[in-house]
């Protein structure tokens, strides 16, 4: 007996690595970029100074973000194999891949901010 349920959603290959890269980039920027962004938004308080606790972990988190971003790029941008469950001409798969590619570049920009901030910060002092 064949089930007539909803069609299966296409596999989101690379989503886990992309989420890990985004989380690591957010935590890496938590010591330096987040207090500045919160101050620009008008959020203040003594608790913002506690975000400096993340500063020693920032290089490690950035390294993890770059590794996860590389893994996500490899999983998202490589050609799908013929034996995967998602057909190449399936429009749902194309939409999923396009959405993941857009989010990949958002996370890549998010990762670039704490990497480039030490280079750009002296211009503002």
UniProtKB/TrEMBL annotation:
User: Where is the protein found, in the record's own terms?
Assistant: Cell inner membrane
Name the lineage: Bacteria, Pseudomonadati, Pseudomonadota, Betaproteobacteria, Burkholderiales
> Which positions are tagged coiled coil?
none
Q: Which domain of life is it from?
A: Bacteria
Report what the protein is called.
Answer: Mercuric transport protein MerT
What are the alphabetically sorted keywords of the record?
Cell inner membrane, Cell membrane, Membrane, Mercuric resistance, Mercury, Metal-binding, Transmembrane, Transmembrane helix, Transport
Record family assignment: Belongs to the MerT family.
**Membrane association type:** Multi-pass membrane protein
Give the matching InterPro entries: Transprt_MerT
Query: What does this chain do?
Result: Involved in mercury resistance. Probably transfers a mercuric ion from the periplasmic Hg(2+)-binding protein MerP to the cytoplasmic mercuric reductase MerA.
Q: Which residue ranges run through the membrane?
A: 57-77, 103-124
């Amino acid at each position: 007996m064949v089930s007539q349920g909803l069609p299966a959603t296409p596999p989101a290959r690379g989503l886990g690595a992309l989420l890990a890269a985004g989380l690591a980039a957010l935590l890496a920027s938590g010591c330096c970029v987040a207090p500045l962004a919160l101050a620009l938004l008008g959020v203040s308080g003594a608790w913002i100074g506690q975000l400096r606790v993340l500063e020693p972990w920032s290089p490690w988190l950035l390294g993890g973000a770059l590794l996860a971003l590389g893994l996500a790029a490899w999983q998202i941008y490589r050609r799908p194999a013929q034996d995967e469950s998602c057909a190449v001409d399936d429009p749902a798969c194309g939409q999923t891949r396009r959405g993941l590619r857009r989010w990949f570049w958002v996370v890549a920009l998010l990762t670039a901010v704490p990497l480039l901030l030490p280079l750009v910060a002296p211009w503002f002092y």
